[in-house]
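Students often ask why inverse folding is considered easier than folding. One informal answer: many sequences map to the same fold, so there is more than one right answer. In these notes we will look at a single instance of the problem. The structure comes first.
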């Protein structure tokens, strides 16, 4: 093996030719409005109905500013995505962007990581959808069997906790343990299946299989509905706001606010799903950059408004619940609005599942076209004009685990790959700028010379870290911070030498810092997944790569 072959890159001109020939089979029906709504669907999912409450519980009313801060941090990455989208009109998202800028091995790692991100995100969302769905049925007096609404892993874990004599367990754990104990058995094995989670994935996979036009229509309807209800919640809730609840504004200080930064950031990351539909966009090079920035702006306004209304209606200490939007209306005796919120959560989560099920098979499709996955994954259905095989496999990959797995186990699988993808996309922009290839972009990240600024920011950050925190204990708790500071120092030196643009560097540093906030379980799971991916790459993709075959033919 030639080490240089790991970094072989795709050519921008060859990508354009491939799009004209291969991508012609897909329907270009998405305008900037449709793309924006796809981004909103992915961003405003389960997060606004759960994450926002936990973040407010720890940070108080000041968490509204956290959403602004995180949105700005996301813009650094979104601008880099937008520049690539204006240059490359294929559906590979960060995978293709990395292939063009940094080379094949990094592209494979990102493509493999995105498989995990999209699949696991949808498993989490599907399990959450099931909880809201069964709760809604209970509200109408329809009793869904408990053993058909929980995964075996979740129920058995809860039962084992009871058997170990753990005290003061929360209600949902006690209920799960009881469900395990009372579940029917087949050949001595407990039958516990999260049927609603599996069924919603099957239904939406079928819709995605039928075509992008049908998926677009359903998604647009769902997004209009949930935005309307969210605006209703903001409007009605504003009448119950008590300004005294906003004092103190940051009761737990800056640490309390930043404690929710990783969770809040993850609530924003759906904008990258827009780039997976490039080949079905009417004018991707113009519309996709706009849609990415539009959806971030709209979602930021909605998140900030919701945070201010929630923390104004009740004391922030009451918001450590799983359904904060519904809870605050129950507190003010408006149960009808609380019921509407619960129903809206189902709509919001459904649209999020739909968008991720659209995105995942299109990444596989592009990896297949490049020879890194088997040819079947790249086939377009002659009638429906969708990557049919990839869509079906994506449905199976999400559906089966969501029937049985525990939510927390699934959550531990995600996050690292997402941040890693964002870092490489931002790095790719710096690389293209250095090579002069960014001139081909119709949208460019605004250039701010970071030659001196990046080092000055490093000096300020180090001073604040050393003087304002117990830095020794912090590093012991988060040893990955050492890597963060070393990388920042290295980037400062490189920025001085090559006059790096400030905004992509801020994207790299923001995402790298957030990676240090993740637990070890996330890193262990990601490392195992990455090792499996490298085995697949060296066993198949390295030899079957289209670039490798072209090299052999010369």
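Output (designed amino acids):
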């Amino acid at each position: 093996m030639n080490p240089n072959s790991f970094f072989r890159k795709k050519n921008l001109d060859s990508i354009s030719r491939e799009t004209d020939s291969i991508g012609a089979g897909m329907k270009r029906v998405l305008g900037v409005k449709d793309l924006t709504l796809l981004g909103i669907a992915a961003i405003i999912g389960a997060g606004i109905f759960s994450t926002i409450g936990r973040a407010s519980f720890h940070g108080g009313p000041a968490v509204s500013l956290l959403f602004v801060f995180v949105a700005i941090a996301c813009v650094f990455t979104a601008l880099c995505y937008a520049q690539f989208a204006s240059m490359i009109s294929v559906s590979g998202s960060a995978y293709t962007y990395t292939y063009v800028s940094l080379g094949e091995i990094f592209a494979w790692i990102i493509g493999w990581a995105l498989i995990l991100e999209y699949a696991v995100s949808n498993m989490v969302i599907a399990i959450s959808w099931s909880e809201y769905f069964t709760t809604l049925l209970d509200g109408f007096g329809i009793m869904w069997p408990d053993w058909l609404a929980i995964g075996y892993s979740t129920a058995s874990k809860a039962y084992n906790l009871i058997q170990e004599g753990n005290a003061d367990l929360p209600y949902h754990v006690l209920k799960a343990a009881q469900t395990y104990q009372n579940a029917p058995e087949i050949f001595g094995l407990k039958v516990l299946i999260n049927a609603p989670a599996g069924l919603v994935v099957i239904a939406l996979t079928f819709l995605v299989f039928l075509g992008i036009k049908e998926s677009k229509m359903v998604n647009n309807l769902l997004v209009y509905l949930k935005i309307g209800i969210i605006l209703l919640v903001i409007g009605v809730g504003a009448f119950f706001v008590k300004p005294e609840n906003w004092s103190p504004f940051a009761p737990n200080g800056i640490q309390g606010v930043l404690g929710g930064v990783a969770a809040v950031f993850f609530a924003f990351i759906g904008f990258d799903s827009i780039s997976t539909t490039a080949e079905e966009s009417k004018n991707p090079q113009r519309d996709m950059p706009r849609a990415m920035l539009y959806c971030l702006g709209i979602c930021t306004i909605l998140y900030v408004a919701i945070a201010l209304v929630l923390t104004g209606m009740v004391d922030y200490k009451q918001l450590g619940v799983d359904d904060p939007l519904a809870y605050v209306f129950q507190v003010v005796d408006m149960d009808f609005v609380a019921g509407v919120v619960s129903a809206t959560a189902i709509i919001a989560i459904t649209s999020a599942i739909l968008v991720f099920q659209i995105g995942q098979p299109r990444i596989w499709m592009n990896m297949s076209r490049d020879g890194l996955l088997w040819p079947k994954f790249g086939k377009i259905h002659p009638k429906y004009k969708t990557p049919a095989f990839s869509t079906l496999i994506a449905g199976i990959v999400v559906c089966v685990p969501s029937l049985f797995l525990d939510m927390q186990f699934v959550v531990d699988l995600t996050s690292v790959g997402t941040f890693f993808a964002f870092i490489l996309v931002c790095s790719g922009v710096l690389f293209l700028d250095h090579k002069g290839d960014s001139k081909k972009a119709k949208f460019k990240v605004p250039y701010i010379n970071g030659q001196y600024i990046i080092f000055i920011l490093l000096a300020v950050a180090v001073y604040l870290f050393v003087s304002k925190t117990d830095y020794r204990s912090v590093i012991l708790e988060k040893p990955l911070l050492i890597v963060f500071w070393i990388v920042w120092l290295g980037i400062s030196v490189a920025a001085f030498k090559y006059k790096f643009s400030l905004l992509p560097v801020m994207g790299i540093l923001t995402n790298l810092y957030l990676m240090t906030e993740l637990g070890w379980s996330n890193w262990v799971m990601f490392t195992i997944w990455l090792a499996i991916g490298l085995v697949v790459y060296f066993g198949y993709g390295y030899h079957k790569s289209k670039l490798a075959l072209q090299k052999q033919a010369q």
